[in-house]
Amino acid sequence: MILLWFLLLIPSFWSAPKILCLGDSLTEGYGIETHQAWPALLEAGLKEKGLLDVQIINAGVSGAVSASGLSRLRWSIKAGPDLVFIALGANDGLRGLPTGQMERNLDVLLQEAIKILGDPQKVIFAGMKVPPNYGLEYSRHFEEVYLKLADKYQVHFVPFLLEDVAGDKTLNLPDGIHPNAQGHQIIMSKLLPTFLKALKHVDLK
Fold first, then answer.
1. Domain membership of residue 160 as a residue range
2. Please, what is the end-to-end C-alpha distance for the chain in angstroms?
3. For 110-159, what is each residue's pLDDT tens digit?
4. What region does 63 belong to: left with phi over 0, alpha with psi -120 to 50, or beta?
5. Integer Rg of the chain from CA
6. Which residues pair with 172 in a beta bridge?
7. Which is catalytic among the residues 25, 92, 156, 184?
8. How far is CA 9 from CA 13, 109, 121, 178, in A?
9. Residues 112-128: b if buried by 16+ CB within 10 A, e if exposed
10. How wide is the angle at C-alpha 148 spanned by C-alphas 165 and 143, nearest 5°?
């Protein structure tokens, strides 16, 4: 959050393209150093691809649920991002919250992000899954929320943020939920192509 506060103070004429990553502890980088979290790794990866001026704003907050997304977006948008990444809902699932309410929360959030940026292709939406012990029916409804909204708004879609990381003890912290530094490396490598595709819709000055 320190980087976000700093960017809010930068004058409006600052033209470096910014990417806002709105999420929870999986984005914040719970349990590891800030520079090891996938948003920081992504910024480095984009620079390696020649996008030297792109800045990542890590707006991940541990414990965040989908209900907090809209207010956080409206506050964070003051940083003037050109691209918004949304990865919320994991904590809704872990708490067993109703999927219908999560869908409504994420629906409004996506609407607002698209309205602000003026183009659904400037929004990246990441899906999530819940552990199998939550039951097949809840798991199915949970995953369907992301698929339904991604199709509805035609945003860039990453079906599962923790693809190839979830469930692997070597890639997660002892709690079995949060990725370790190596796990974040894999997340970044999976996300990089999608970000590069979305950035084609941004005026890179």
1. 17-201
2. 25
3. 999 999 999 999 999 999 999 989 999 999 999 999 999 999 999 999 99
4. left
5. 16
6. 179
7. 25
8. 11, 24, 27, 31
9. bbbeebeebbbbbbbbb
10. 35
**Tens digits of per-residue pLDDT, 32-45?**
999 999 999 999 99
In this structure, are residues 50 and 86 in contact, taking their beta carbons and an 8 Å threshold? no
> Active site includes 175?
yes
Q: Does 5 fall in a domain?
A: no
**The dihedral formed by the CA atoms of 105, 197, 194 and 199, expressed in degrees to the nearest 10:** -60
**Closest to 75 measured CA to CA, from 2, 3, 5:** 5
Domain count, the chain: 1
Q: Identify the pLDDT of residue 55.
A: 95
- Find the catalytic residue in 76, 82, 178, 184: 178
Q: Is 25 known to be catalytic?
A: yes
Domain assignment present for residue 8? The answer is no
SS3 state of residue 10: coil
* CATH code assigned at 49: 3.40.50.1110
Task: Please compute the mean of the pLDDT values over residues 1-23 and round it to a whole number.
Answer: 62
Check residue 15 and give its pLDDT. Answer: 61
* Residue 181 located in a structural domain: yes
**Residue 51 structure tokens:** 């996008």
Separation between Cα atoms, residue 16 and residue 141, nearest integer Å = 40
Q: What is the pLDDT of residues 180-195, one digit of tens each?
A: 999 999 999 999 999 9
Q: pTM here?
A: 0.91
- Give a yes or no: residue 4 inside a domain: no
